[in-house]
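Subject: mismatched residue count in predicted assembly?

I count 564 residues in my input, but I want to confirm that the predicted structure covers every chain. Input:
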Amino acid sequence: MELKNAVAGTLESGDIMVRIEPSDGGLQIGLESPVKAKFGRQIESLIRETLGSLGIENAKVEAIDKGALDCTIRARVTAAAVRASGKDVWKD
Amino acid sequence: MRNSKISTLEEAILRSGLKDGMTVSFHHHFRGGDKVVCMVMDKLAEMGFKNLHLAASSLSDVHAPLIEHIKNGVITRISTSGLRGRLAEEISRGLMDEPVIFRSHGGRGSAIASGELHIDVAFLGASSSDELGNACGYSRSENAKSICGSLGYALPDARYADHVVVITDDLVEYPNMPKSISACDVESVVVVDSVGDSSKISAGAIRDSKNPRDILIAKQAAKVVINSGLFEDGFSIQTGTGGASLAVVKYLRESMLEKGIKASFALGGITAHMVKLHEEGLIGRLVDVQSFDKVAAESIKNDPFHQEVSSIEYASGMHKGSAVHALDIVILSALEVDTDFNVNVLVGSDGVIRGAIGGHQDTAADSRLSIIVCPLLRGRIPCVVPRVTTLITPGSSVDVVVTEYGIAVNPARPEIKERLEAAGLKIVDIQALAAKAESMTGTPDPLPFRDKVVGIMMNRDGRKLDEIHAIG
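Triage response: the counts match. Full output below for your records.
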């Protein structure tokens, strides 16, 4: 899938900012989070799973988390993916 | 003046007989604005002292420069009630060989009185002093440079330390009256440009919350107080410094006015909120171990019914006359509460020390009703958990936990549960709160603690309660 640079989310408490860039080397996920020790593994796997379900297999993802819950993470990753791919998952 | 005790800091240190390995003590009434701890430790380092035990009533971000003194072997042991900022972070990661000893304010007072915590030299900052050492947390002179109000945490040090050095930024004419620290306990008086920045007293833990969740929790906590069976004319109350616990006072005030109920006293750290109720005639006396803002500090100076107490008189468990024994209701915050009602107020969810015990242990144990106000989650951090990271206040002294998802009552207090239910409040099981939190955050992975012990948590009776391990 053809991707362009895209971003979704904010740096407000309880939110997560997700930046997607094109890449050919699979999914490379960088995560910064105040709860990384306790939930980093779960957040990374949720990002991977969300992108996978949207058919994105090659991308560089930078996520700056501010304590977001799963529902927020899924929404921000989806929005960033839609902007990066131009494929509107809610419409198409 | 004859017998003047005025000296330079260096002379005072030499005169004190301080030797390597001894214990020096400090109070934290200037909180984030404190200048005394770093000033004295810098001087002690410069004079070549090593292996000192720093016994402070609390330490905060302003004390980050102590990291160098620890690295250089000037400080090798620390006792405190709180630890925040970069110093706390470094210690959590294993900076020191000896673990930090944590005590509650009442526990520190008891330990000093019993000799368990022996102080060789106390360095006590004061906003005014005369040449003989009658010292105070405010000044009535025109040259007043600072104000911190109560010197409650300094008083056990002044009374029991072998040698006392008062450090002041306003030398006033003898006799400095009224005084907090008596000249009879003081050996030297050192005059400096500034002992602390009074504008930073309320920095740190204290926030005035506009957060709707805090307000919801505060309203629920006020309903718990009102329907607890203890809300009657002459009741007494203390609140902690968290946003929600401060906000409770606002909602209680409305009910006090409506029902014509007045409190006999408010205890502990006193804030502008409490001063307002006192001035309106709703609280008879303010019993102040620590003035939490400038309004409180000014009030203790000007109002005879707003009185200073030492940390021993405030919260000692071994002194049956301490004020906590007369306290009806206390409202406290928490970083974490577990399903056995144990509370952690010291170690963050990342395993890093970032808090202070204060009077948490003392007031929860001796009050008739202790209420913990705590959100279910902070961001993705669950605050009602199966087991607290570090045990600070045992669940046996915690009665009610108020969250935005419901109120839990300790099964040991069935009469409280009954009264709250009769008033139409929804009581939930603490296990259900923990399960709700986990359903929203997921099950956390264990923190990467190491074997090394960086902190020892004491109970107020002098027994060891828990250990804090190095993180990362």
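Chain A has two helices and four strands. Marking this ticket as 'not a bug'.
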